Amino acid sequence: MEKKVLSEKSPVFGRRDAQIKLEAFNYRDSALFVPDYSPEDKAICYGVTGGVAKYLSLFDPKKSLDDNIKRLFFNTDGYLFEETKNLLTQEFADVTLVNNVIEQVASGENALNIIASKVKEKDPTVLYSLEKLIDVGLVEKKKCITEEKNRKKTQYVLKDHMFKFWYEFIPKAISVIEMGQGELYYEKAVKPKLHEFMGSVFEEMCRYYTLEQGIQGAFGSFLTETGTWWGVEQLQDAEDKWYQQATDIDVVGISTIDKTAVIGECKFKNEKIDKGIYETLIGRARLISGKYNITKYLLFSLSGFTDWFNDIDKTNLVLITVDDMYK
């Protein structure tokens, strides 16, 4: 539509009354496609579809999450089995290079020079592919929220969750799926790793929730944006020797109005959050407290929290479960 209808070469250019770019649904709206699923399954459904309306419409709400995923991804006649290949063929001339670039980003490589080295291409060539992937909404150039003007603190990450799921599990199982054993592969190799896969998806869900609630003043200040912080922190070992360690903060919500912030940690695991995670989050607060006054600490958990939290002062602490996020 953008190339054929909205471009300057189009005969109807400049004559439109309005235009809208249809984005993916957020995690809460996506859940309306599977209203009877548990909050955990609703989240995973969002994770494997990326909130794309077409993919969500393919889920049969009367069937289980597992049955839907196996039918759509792990059968040769499943709609999403070759969806990534079909989309790339439609959008790109050099599918091989783009596919190689996506594979590297999906595997966790997020720096231009490293990606270029891995695919054995020059930086400008890979940058061109990355920029096109950004244009079509598959890749995102992620910036450290407190240092958005620092070009060195940027990362290329997969924005499309369905692509992330596909590249993580499908390529290594093509032969198995073609032999008709895709459902067995799902049970043995994919299902046990779903929570691990959902880690980054859940963080994105939590950032959306934080901004949504923060706009309404739920955390004591009017939040204007959310993102992630990453960098290096100074720690002491058992012998009181200092050392540096790479670290990050999953959720950082800031108010550019009064320079306040909230920070959070997210765990999509079958275990409750304990005091260790809370204390780690408190310790990392100093990494951004010089720029913003931190007013709240948020802990997001799939499985809830240990009894340790019953006896502490929670004035500046907010405990949020996946169930809470769907209310």
- CATH topological fold name of the largest domain: Trna Endonuclease, Chain: A, domain 1
| Category by helix and strand content | alpha/beta
What is the average of the pLDDT values?
92
Segments where pLDDT lies below 50 for 5+ residues?
A: none
Report the C-alpha radius of gyration, rounded: 21 Å
Proportion of beta-strand residues = 15-25%
User: Helix share of residues?
Assistant: 25-40%
Instruction: Compute the separation of the termini in Å.
Output: 37 Å
Shape category: globular
From the coordinates shown, what is the CATH architecture of the largest domain? 3-Layer(aba) Sandwich
Helix run count = 14
CATH top level of the largest domain?
Alpha Beta
> How is the biggest beta sheet arranged?
5 strands, mixed
How many strand units?
7
